[in-house]
Amino acid sequence: MITIKSGLTALGRYIQLMGRVCTRPDRMRMFVKQYWTEMYQLGYNSIAIVLIISCFIGAVICLQMKLNIQSSWMPTMTTGFTTREIMLLEFSSSIMCLILAGKVGSNIASEIGTMRITQQIDALDIMGVNSANYLILPKVLGLMTIMPILVTLSVAAGIGGAYATTMIGTTTIAELNEGFQYSFNPWFFWCGMIKAVVYAFIITSVSAYKGYTVEGGSVEVGKASTDAVVNSSILILFSDIFLTNMLT
After folding, report:
1. Residue 6 lies in a domain
2. Does 1 fall in a domain?
3. Could you tell me if residue 68 is inside a domain?
4. Are 112 and 184 in contact (CB under 8 A)?
5. Which terminus of the chain is less hemmed in, N or C, by CB atoms within 10 Å?
6. Does this model's pTM top 0.85?
7. Cβ proximity of 84 and 180 under 8 Å
8. pLDDT tens digits, one per residue of 126-177
9. Residue 34 region, left (φ>0) first, then alpha (ψ -120 to 50), else beta?
10. Which of 240, 226, 246 is nearest to 109 (CA)?
11. Residue 16: inside a domain, yes or no?
């Protein structure tokens, strides 16, 4: 019963915080500047890890499909087709966002949590600044803007990794081309984009909430950072079930 009560309390505080966040910024010029800064810090700085992981995962998926699924009685395009569907529908949107929740979410929670325990947020409130809107909204919109681009890069890198497996003779470029082009449904691409935007909101809002409401010292900031990653990941997995059912 205590767990349910604490969960409902946290949900109410989260909704109240998002109500303060989703208001018109007091200084639009400052907001736009911070928005671009957050896009760079949260999105651009994550491109390298997205490309590296996606490339290797695309190669591994291609190898696994070729070695364990494709056989003499199945079409030669099975490997490319399956790799494309996995990258489009699940890995580049859901799994990649889970990975970014660890990198981006912990960063947001620790940054805002440090500002909370050093009383920087209190100073903003005393000056009449809507600290929730000023600190959190640029992060939310910045990641929601850049995340579809990261997902697109992830798909491209995964396909590139699949093509790289042709150098070890596992499959051929012609077979992959046939599979990648076979029965392509453009809606699957947009499903990934919709998922990316939703997951970006979950990562930034939950992580910011954990950092904004932290109480105590540096130990509590570390715990809030861990909780932000765990809670974001769980919510992404739950959301994936409902979004996959609704969109596909």
Report:
1. no
2. no
3. yes
4. no
5. N
6. yes
7. yes
8. 888 888 899 999 999 999 999 999 999 999 999 898 888 888 777 778 888 8
9. alpha
10. 226
11. no
